[in-house]
Design a protein that fits this description.
The structure holds two protein chains of two kinds. Chain A is mainly alpha-helical. Chain A is built from 16 helices and two strands. Chain A has a domain of about 230 residues. The radius of gyration of chain A is 22 Å and the shape is globular. Chain B has one domain: ABC transporter involved in vitamin B12 uptake, BtuC, CATH 1.10.3470. Chain B has twelve helices and no strands. The chains are: A mainly alpha, B mainly alpha.
């Protein structure tokens, strides 16, 4: 008797919904085990990470503030991942977007007017767009792998940030600290819920998710993105240009990452500092997958990851669990998700040596997007 | 420039080239078998912290190196199980491995931040390396000689050995290799484990030789440069050697430009150079007529499931 995988004729829709929850549950169990093995209070750590942020209504605002950038970036990434375009440099686009917006803020410093904030936001989007256009150009023109170029540009963006903070953009009245001036009231995001930390970026993130849902499910462009990922050859027959899809995927994800960046700078930070990059661009990759590349799933996944961020900070102060543990914990979630994903495509069967061998496809030809299809794509 | 300066430059180039050469050699074998493991950076970090922790605790650098190889190979097996047995997407799994490695290394390393170990500088007695020219030959860390020997071994293995031929066949046409009775998944597991061990060795160069102390994210993205190096080398070990030293020169340019008092470029721009150079090199290799890209193993990154 041994365990074997039997291909399902079509992906299980039930498993599509169950597996992300299963992955989170398995991460919790593994977390208890690992943190205990490392000499921490394992159960306490999990309680701090997953329960405390939810138990205290006062901390809910933190969750929304943390989730907003993750959701915005992941929505863009999902478009690319569906089309098999791997933009993993969202962190860089996030930074450059924030820098572009900051540039407008510094240029308009001392001025007043309702036009300033929209101009900053527009600059943020354009900054992210421009940074993502580099890998898009290299990919479409020279067939250079976008994975490596987009990632390399993240390191370049970080150095650019350091340069601007230590040099030209340093606050002249800031006692030589490498950071910009504080943004003025015309340059910061208004609160969406008065009296809380919840800024305008939060409702925008939710609205963008709805827009992305409609676009992906109901428009030709959304269909094209899905088809290019699911069946590249069919897409070519249908006349969908792979080149256009690469541009679309990278510009969408870059623009949204830039938007998230300027929201973060003009929201929680209210200035630019070298501590600005906190790996949201990388965590958003986990959010996109945990959310099944589906806009509404991404909102849920963004909240789950936000819980782990806020909870990770809790565990840091209460039981001394290092901050790095949060990153490891989040990566484990993706590991478990990828592992249980097998249940969407295959049935687990116990089979004896004489059991009939069911027909199996020799190789699942479908690319990544096909193996984590969104619920509606199964019926499309 | 005096010859002493030239030799000291050459020594730092060797230092910058060796870790990426080690890691890239492992990845080259992995990719030749048809698997794309983007977790190089994470595995290097796990190797770096393990090498440091074990060397610090036991006082034995060789033990540290062995532990680093074992730890990174173990980490690579997570990737192997997910992508080979469960046919998970290789790009996503590799990324997860890198994020995991960053977190795990920083978690293990937090008790070691700022501590130092005796650097693994010397292979031969100091007397042999006294004269500057002899220093160039005998004055390196054992890892440097290991990286050179491994380059030759990998080149021989891939082109001259039967096992290497099988591995390449699996990378070029898994279906055909499977149908004549080779274990595609088994060979790929071995390749991935080898890639993990080599990444661990490369990572330990940072924590035992280059900066014999622990700091978070010590490898600073060099794992990604090693990945690019494999593409640059068109999957050929000897070109990999040349590429690693070329990249080593670019990476140390920053150091020497600062020392030489280059002031027209801010240090941050110098620090960008290796990453920009990588992008340029990847572009050049893509347009080169004898297409570097075309040399990619045909089955690279595609999952395989045996029939029946």
């Amino acid at each position: 008797m041994r365990l074997r995988l039997e291909a399902r004729r079509e992906p299980s829709r039930a498993m599509l919904y169950v597996t992300p929850a299963l992955a989170v549950a398995m991460t919790v169990l593994a977390g208890i085990f690992i943190f205990t093995a490392m000499g921490y209070d394992g159960l306490g750590a999990i309680y701090q990470i997953f329960i405390t942020p939810l138990a205290d209504p006062y901390r809910w605002q933190d969750l929304f503030v943390k989730a907003a950038p993750l959701i915005i970036i992941a929505l863009g990434l999902a478009v690319g991942f569906r089309a098999n375009v791997w933009n993993i440099g969202a962190e860089g686009q996030y930074i450059v977007g924030a820098l572009a917006g900051t540039g407008v803020a510094l240029a308009s410093w001392g001025m007043e007017g309702y036009w300033i904030l929209p101009a900053m936001i527009l600059a943020g989007i354009l900054g992210g767009l421009a940074w993502a256009a580099i890998p898009a150009f290299l990919k479409t023109r020279f067939k250079v792998n976008e994975i490596l170029t987009s990632l390399m540009l993240t390191y370049v963006a970080i150095q650019l940030l350091y340069y601007l903070m230590r040099g030209p953009w340093k606050d002249p009245e800031g006692f030589n600290f490498p950071q910009t001036r504080l943004f003025t009231e015309w340059q910061t995001l208004p609160a969406a819920v008065p009296g809380t930390l919840i800024h305008l970026g939060v409702p925008v993130a939710l609205a963008l998710a709805v827009v992305a849902w409609v676009v992906l499910a109901r428009t030709v462009t959304g269909f094209q993105v899905r088809i290019v990922g699911l069946a590249p050859q069919a897409a070519r027959y249908a006349g969908f240009s792979a080149r256009r899809t690469v541009w679309l995927a990278l510009l969408t994800s870059g623009g949204l990452a830039g938007l998230a960046g300027i929201f973060e700078a003009a929201g929680p930070f209210q200035q630019m500092t070298p501590q600005f990059p906190v790996n949201y661009g990388f965590t958003a990759i986990i959010v996109a997958f945990l959310g099944r590349l589906h806009p509404l799933g991404i909102v849920l996944a963004g909240m789950v990851l936000a819980v782990s961020y806020v909870g990770g900070e809790n565990a840091q102060t209460t039981i001394g669990l290092p901050y790095a543990a949060t990153g490891m914990f989040q990566a484990m979630m993706l590991f478990f998700l990828l592992a249980v994903d097998v249940l969407v495509r295959y049935r687990l069967r116990l089979s004896g040596p004489g059991a009939a061998r069911p027909h199996q496809e020799s190789r699942p030809q479908a690319p990544a997007a096909a193996r984590t299809p969104a619920p509606e794509s199964a019926s499309a | 420039m005096s010859s002493a300066v030239l030799i000291s430059i050459a020594m730092t180039v060797v230092g910058a080239a060796t870790p990426i050469l080690l890691a890239a050699l492992g990845e080259l074998v992995v990719e030749k078998s048809g698997v794309l493991n983007l977790g190089l950076e994470g595995m290097m970090l796990i190797g770096a912290v393990t090498a440091f922790a074990v060397t610090y605790s036991t006082g034995s650098a060789p033990l540290g190196l062995i532990a680093a190889m074992a730890a990174s190979a173990a980490a690579s097996m997570i990737f192997g199980f997910l992508t080979l047995t469960l046919t998970a997407n290789q790009v996503a799994t590799g990324l997860a491995l890198t994020i995991f490695g960053i977190g795990l290394s920083s978690l293990i390393g937090q008790g070691f931040v700022g501590r130092t170990v005796d650097a693994l500088h010397r292979t031969f007695p100091a007397a042999l390396a006294e004269h500057p020219v002899w220093r160039l030959i005998f004055g390196h860390s054992p890892l440097v000689y290991i990286s050179l020997v491994m380059t030759a071994l990998v080149a021989w293995f891939l082109t001259r050995s039967r096992a290497g031929l099988i591995l390449r066949a699996i990378g070029e046409s898994d279906e055909a290799a499977h149908s004549i009775g080779y274990s595609v998944i088994g060979v790929r597991y071995l390749a991935v484990a080898f890639g993990g061990a080599m990444a661990g060795l490369g990572g330990s160069y940072y924590s035992l030789v280059l900066t014999p102390m622990w700091a978070d994210r010590l490898t600073a993205g060099r794992g990604w440069i090693a990945l690019a190096l494999v593409v640059f080398a068109s999957w050929r070990p000897l070109r990999l050697l040349a590429g690693a030293y070329l990249f080593g020169a670019v990476m140390t340019f920053e150091l020497h430009a600062k020392a030489a008092g280059v002031s027209f470029l801010a240090p941050e721009f110098l620090a960008m150079l290796p990453y920009l150079a990588t992008i340029v090199v990847l572009t050049v290799i893509s347009v080169a007529p004898a297409g570097g890209r075309l040399a990619a193993p045909a089955c690279l990154g595609k999952p395989f499931r045996a029939t029946g």
